[in-house]
Design a protein that fits this description.
The chain is mainly α. The chain is 77% helix and 1% strand. A hairpin with a 5-residue loop joins strand 1 and strand 2. The longest helix has 38 residues.
Length: 574
């Protein structure tokens, strides 16, 4: 047992220092030893099993972690009961792991247990209870149960506001004695930290409810909440804090996606002017967030990019630097931030269609990061991946292939051939080789990615579903005359569609793309009725309207099409 304890302590130390890969075999050795000595149901064995599952989860091996955590849950429920903190921790870890895999329905009962236990043991107003309630609201949003999510978010916001009010309210205390006077500065500092934490939690709750109400069409209340969250976070955390930028981006998205219904009696000119003011404010918020490094800017990008698409790199760079200058005169980015700044600038240019201006910026970012961090650093490899994707888009496939092979080799050397990064890079390389016509190599890489990601992340993870869809598209395109390949492609598309619909919703862009790919495959297989149904689903999801002149017709083999239509399958079944 002493040897097992020493090995467990070493595994914990390696995990804390970021060396999870080295910690896993040690943790597994401890687990096997305790199972042999103490038995499967012993509490120490359960504790080791829980720690091993958390190690696997930290490495992105969610599928393996999910196979272990239910054993921990059942063991702790039997030994400790449902009110013990260790049991609640096991429930929570299981729920979070299922959520990370996109399996929201499986996560729900565990998170319900956690919420009920926190309310029972800590009270409905306890910060931990409110934190779990907000997580439960996020799960309800993923399950598309927005009415229940709204109720949950409103309860959390009201409780957070009450806690913040109590923290701001001056406390009446008796006159302190000499000993208490000496400790009063510490007490005052603790009160300030508590007030700051309560206000930060209030702004977080307002942000979450504001974003949800925006998606539900409650524009005015959503705007009030997001403005309050942006202003409060700026005062509390600073204008450049990531959470402040996230609120600013959410507000920009609301303003840019169109104003609410105009007031009664408002003239056309006034409405146009109000729309322009809101759009200009959204653009300023967007540019400021992008320049300051906000990760949430990409959500606003599709709405605002049309107004930025005409700008050159130099003009957009000036706008971004100008956006950095606030009333205090903030300086432009420091030299060491130039690669990151160039990457953001290139992303906007590429998304707005200006790929010629984006390419040299990406090349500079790759060179700078290689110089600063080395060729195998994760930031360098991320920049290489972005450059390869752009080169693939503009037709420079050979150079893109060289860069992707370089990134894949670096990931394999640093993290192992079965790491998530290496498997995702293999999938990207397979898709590129398919475009180049190297079908044999492409199939090997695509199958490796699909098989490896399923084992590493589980079948319902978004990366796994993308790998399924990519392999299905390859088989559909290159093996049309092979019945077995067509059947395999159908299975892959159905698995990807089922997972994407469950995790992202039917109206998500990737879900609708998979619907159309499956419909095209079924059409090619001579299953017109099911194909027609899927095309109708895709069109409904995109909000498409059938043209009044469209006439459904059946050609040879019973395939449906629009008379006088086009060869584009996504249009020919409208």
């Amino acid at each position: 047992l002493d040897t097992l304890i020493a090995a467990e302590n070493l595994a914990m130390l390696l995990g804390k220092r970021g060396r999870q890969q080295d910690a896993v075999p040690l943790s597994l050795r401890v687990l096997e030893g305790r199972q042999n000595v103490l038995g499967l149901d012993h509490l120490e064995t359960m504790s080791t099993l829980y720690g091993h599952a958390m190690l696997l989860k930290s490495l992105g091996r969610h599928y393996e972690a999910c196979s272990l955590l239910p054993r921990v849950v059942s063991g702790r429920e039997r030994a400790l009961g449902t009110n013990h903190p260790d049991t609640v921790a096991a429930w929570h870890a299981t729920a979070v792991t299922f959520q990370a895999m996109g399996q929201y329905e499986q996560a729900e009962p565990f998170l319900v247990h956690v919420r009920n236990a926190c309310e029972r043991l800590l009270g409905p107003q306890h910060p931990d209870t409110l934190r779990v309630a907000r997580n439960f609201g996020e799960l309800l949003v993923c399950l598309d149960r927005k009415d229940l999510a709204e109720q949950t978010y409103r309860r959390v916001l009201e409780a957070r506001r009450e806690i913040a009010r109590q923290c701001r309210r001056p406390q009446q205390r008796p006159v302190p004695g000499p000993q208490e006077q000496r400790s009063s500065p510490a007490t005052s500092q603790e009160e300030e930290e508590a007030q700051r934490g309560a206000e930060e939690a209030e702004h977080t709750a307002a942000h979450a409810l504001g974003e949800l109400l925006h998606t539900m069409g409650m524009w005015e209340e959503a705007e009030r909440l997001l403005r309050a969250s942006t202003r409060g976070r700026a005062e509390l955390l600073g204008a450049r804090h990531p959470e402040t930028l996230a609120s600013a981006c959410a507000l920009a998205q609301l303003l840019a996606s169109g104003p609410p219904e105009p007031p009664l009696g408002e003239g056309e000119d006034a409405a146009r002017q109000r729309h322009k003011q809101r759009h200009d404010e959204a653009e300023r918020l967007f540019l400021r967030a992008l320049a300051d490094g906000g990760a949430a800017w990409s959500a606003v990008c599709p709405t605002l990019l049309p107004s930025l698409g005409h700008l050159t790199a130099a003009e957009l760079s000036k706008l971004l630097i100008k956006a950095l200058e606030d009333k205090e005169g903030v300086l432009p980015p420091e030299p060491e931030d130039t690669p990151t700044f160039n990457l953001r600038l290139a992303a906007v240019l590429e998304a707005s269609g200006n790929v010629q201006e984006a390419e040299p910026l990406l090349r500079c970012a790759v060179e700078d990061r290689e110089t600063m961090f080395g060729a195998s650093h994760p930031d360098t490899l991320a920049a290489i991946g972005k450059l390869a994707a752009l080169l693939r888009k503009v037709g420079s496939k050979h150079e893109a292939e060289r860069l992707l092979r370089k990134a894949l080799a670096a990931h394999e050397a640093a993290l192992g051939a079965d790491s998530r990064e290496a498997l995702e890079a293999a999938g990207e390389l397979g898709a590129l080789l398919q475009m180049c016509g190297h079908h044999r190599d492409a199939e090997q890489y695509l199958r490796r990615a699909a098989r490896g990601l399923e084992l590493r992340l589980g079948p319902a993870h978004p990366s796994t579903m993308s790998a399924f869809a990519s392999l299905g598209a390859f088989l559909q395109e290159t093996r049309r005359d092979d019945e077995d390949a067509r059947c395999e492609a159908e299975r892959l598309f159905r698995r990807a569609l089922e997972g994407r619909q469950a995790s992202q919703g039917l109206c998500h862009r990737e879900t609708l793309q998979t619907v159309r790919e499956l419909a095209q495959l079924l059409k090619d297989q001579g299953k017109p009725q099911e194909a027609w149904h899927l095309y109708r689903v895709a069109n409904a999801g995109e909000g498409a309207q059938s043209p009044p002149s469209a006439v459904l017709d059946f050609e040879d083999g019973g395939s449906p099409s629009v008379a006088g239509g086009t060869s584009n399958a996504s249009i020919s079944f409208l």
